[in-house]
Amino acid sequence: MVTRTVFAVGTALAAAVATTVFALHADAASVPAAEAGFTLPPANAAFDYQIGGAYAPPSGVTVVSRDREAPVAAGIYTICYVNAYQTQPGEAAWWQAEHDDLLLRDDNGEYVVDGEWDEILLDISTPEKRTAVAAVVNGWIDGCARDGFRAVEPDNIDSYDRSGGKLDIEDSVAYLTLLAPHAHAAGLAIGQKNTTDLGTRGRDLGLDFAITEDCGRWDECTDYTDVYGDHVIDVEYSDSTFRKACRAVGATVSVVRRDLKVTAPGSGTYKYDAC
Predict the structure, then answer these.
(1) What is the mean pLDDT of residues 136-162?
(2) Rounded Cα distance, 93 and 6, in Å
(3) What is the pTM of this model?
(4) DSSP-based three-state secondary structure for 241
(5) What pLDDT, in 10s, does the model give residues 115-125?
(6) 75, 103, 163, 180: which is deepest, by most CB within 10 A?
(7) Phi and psi at residue 141, in whole multiples of 5°?
């Protein structure tokens, strides 16, 4: 893993960064993506979700999403998965050693953990913390660009829902204003990962498309298409909700069926289908 040193910054610097970010977004909002130097994933393309491990994509697939440390799929539009709001499994020790002050703690001083995935939440509760965390994550985004990825998928935008009240949606939105313009400047499109709570705010601050999980299960698919049109990719984790999502939006957006652990072929739990 490539580490990136993060220096603490003062409130004045954080405010200046935020002002610059909003100015950059205001300039970019009126510029088509291609002219701005990045390209969106093609709408309703054959897609595969490979964040659990890279493998040769199924025949016909033209878009994949892979972990930032995985290789780009040759000849295929590849999205870079980045766990931007929580510690990736296996990386908690690195965060604790290098940036323990950027890990969210509760009132008892204990780490705030997403229990489902055993991931510690990153502390984006103040402008200073957000700027410091963004310095790390934007370093990863730069790495995605250097490695040939075409877009970035910042996961766990809705981590505030698992923060025990230590974070809220405004913290998440403010943090995104540090990531979206940086991704664009690096030549990458950037997607909204889950959460309908943003409404149109994600699009307004610069997010270009959406990657959803189980929008069919939760009857949320049109909440995303209302904001991003056909630039939505949905991943379903059961046969019934996959069929439901295909009926609802499969004619116009990418919908795939994957196993919950998004494993590779030969794992015994591997599942893939598309409509």
Answers:
(1) 97
(2) 16
(3) 0.86
(4) helix
(5) 899 999 999 99
(6) 180
(7) -60, -40
Model pLDDT, residue 231 = 98
* Residue labelled with tokens 């972990």: 67
Which DSSP category does 78 fall into? E
* Beta-bridge partners for 111: 105
For strand 151-155 and strand 254-258, is the pairing parallel, antiparallel, or unpaired?
Answer: unpaired
Angle value at C-alpha 257, between 256 and 260, nearest 5 degrees:
125
Helix or strand holding residue 213 (H, E): strand 209-213
Strand partners, 120: 113
pLDDT at 164 over 90: yes
Residue 186 CA, distance from chain mean position: 16
Burial pattern 171-195, b for ≥16 Cβ within 10 A else e, equals bbbbbbbbbbbbbbbbebbbbbbbb
Owner of token pair 């610069």: 206
* Residue 158 DSSP code: G
Q: Which of 27, 77, 72, 31 is nearest to 54 (CA)?
A: 72
